[in-house]
Structure formats: structure tokens, C-alpha cells
Amino acid sequence: MISTSKILFPAVFIVLAGFLFSCESNFKDVQKINVSTYAPIGEADTINLKYTDSGKIKAILVSPKMLDFSNAAFPYTEFPKGIDVTLYDNGGKKSFVRSDYAITYKGTDIIDLQGNVKITSEDGKILETTQLYYDQKREWFFTEKKCKLTLGPGNEFYTKGFDASRDFKDINGQVFFGEGQANDF
């Protein structure tokens, strides 16, 4: 005569083992859910990147933090702690770009600069705004935000909306107004 405990124990063990093994694949699926699809594929701290073309330095980018999201559906690179960029023209003249935050979109070659954006040319022209875009292909800055443009000592202009060439030789302001009217800048 076979006792019920001898039959019940192996049956419970088989059911429990089957349950545990079937959960393993589900557990891996649950782990995948917890991983953000927007997690960066790469991170870098304290970067100093030099861009050259035909043996000449065209730009130097310095940033405390870079996040690479080239795995996203619309790939981009983010600089959450800001950037300092030195741009060189063909004659070797420099322009300096600084912002608190930047993001560059790989498919469009557009750089979005945000927070205390300041561009200074080697000849002393200064542009200050809260957000500015840079088209790398056309080498062109543009924004719809309010800007302060300093062309020299005592020569300040304020504008809402602005676009200019990288060297500030071609400047277009949508609405220029004097310093007394710049109370919202």
C-alpha cells in the first residue's frame, strides 16, 4: 500500500519546479521593461573634442558630461551640464560659444543651445539669449527668443528673433529696439 505523502510530495515538487522554471523567462521580460528605452548608449565625463577638416582645426568642444542616444529612433547627443565651444573660420579667427545645456540631433545637424547662451566673436561682438539653434551645415545661428547683441562699447541692441552667420558678418534681427525698451530681456 502506497501512502498519499509518497505520491503528494513528488507531485507538489514537480508542479513547483515547473512553476519556477516557467517564471524565469517572464522574469527576464520584466527586467527588460524596467530598462528605459531612452537610456544612453554611451556616457562620457570631462570631454575635450577637436573637430578637424583637411588638417585644420574647425572646432573644439569642451563639456563636463556627454550622453549618446544614438540608439533612439531619432538619434541625438546631449550635454546636460553645458558646453564651451571654440569655432575657427578659414582665416583662423575664433568665435566662442557657451551654454548651460546643449543637444545635437544627428539626422538634422542642428544644435540646440539653452540657458545663458553667449556667443563672443574674436572682434568683440557678443550675442546673449536663453535659447539659440546652430545649423552646422549652413554655419548659421537662429532663434525666436529675445536677444541682446553688443557690437562694441555702448553699441547694444535688443531683438526678438535673430539669425546670423557664424562670424556675425551677416546679421538679421526681426525687431530691433533700444536699450530702454528691453525690460523683458
From TrEMBL:
Gene3D superfamilies: Lipopolysaccharide (LPS) transport protein A like domain. Signal peptide: none annotated. InterPro entries: LipoPS_assembly_LptC-rel, LptC. It holds the Pfam family LptC. It comes from the Bacteria. GO terms for molecular function: lipopolysaccharide transmembrane transporter activity. GO terms for cellular component: plasma membrane. Transmembrane segments: none annotated. This is LPS export ABC transporter periplasmic protein LptC.
